[in-house]
Protein: Chromosome partitioning protein ParA
Amino acid sequence: MSKILAFTNQKGGVGKTTSTANVGAGLARAGQRVLLVDLDPQANLTKGLGLLDAEHNVYGALLGEYKLKAYSLRENLALVAGSPALSGFEKVKGDELDREFLLKELLESVRERCDYILLDCPPALGLVTLNAYTCAQALYVPLEAQMYAADGLEKVLELVGKVQRRLNPGLSVGGIFFTRHDSRKVLRRETAEELRALHPGLVLTSFIRESIALGEAPHLGKDIFSYAPQSAGAADYQALVAEILTR
Structure:
């Protein structure tokens, strides 16, 4: 039975999609069977991994228009495409009974065929994100070590507590990790230390440095290991993958 991990942060632009793609690719390189699910209406995970002509997407599957379709990207790595229509999911399904469990029910059909399912959550803490939290076993929160970083994190942790009590008692926070990190900058170093003190045991030792290659790879439809395997970005995500595998 696969482990379901959700990458989440209510703040956009923190490297959530980049992390979903590259952690997934890193796990696949380690021999794990990985399914990525693009739950962000921007569908940047789908576009950034080169899937431009998907006829089936997660939104249509959630609405029951067709069965869940996973597109193979490379060995051990597949993707359920996202859709801009996900922005209307709450309006369409908001009054439905057990609306928080729709994604969990959808993924049951593929869990036996995967080792890991990685969910790329939207930046809003709405019904799509709630569905992800309801079926996930662990959340990973990427953030930048800068002013107000803790504010977004606290909102995520508040929602986690509610989901644990009401919908998914098995949910946990797998870890918090820093992206676009530069430990030479005093503010970033102090913010990182503050968060480690506030959340002991949750802040991972691995962090992702600023990297040009990480920004270039999605424009070519590639993960960092396919695009620049010798880059700092590849080394950082390899370390993050290794740490996730031990938690």
Notes: The CA atoms of residues 10 and 124 lie 5 Å apart. Residues 149-166 form the longest helix (18 residues).
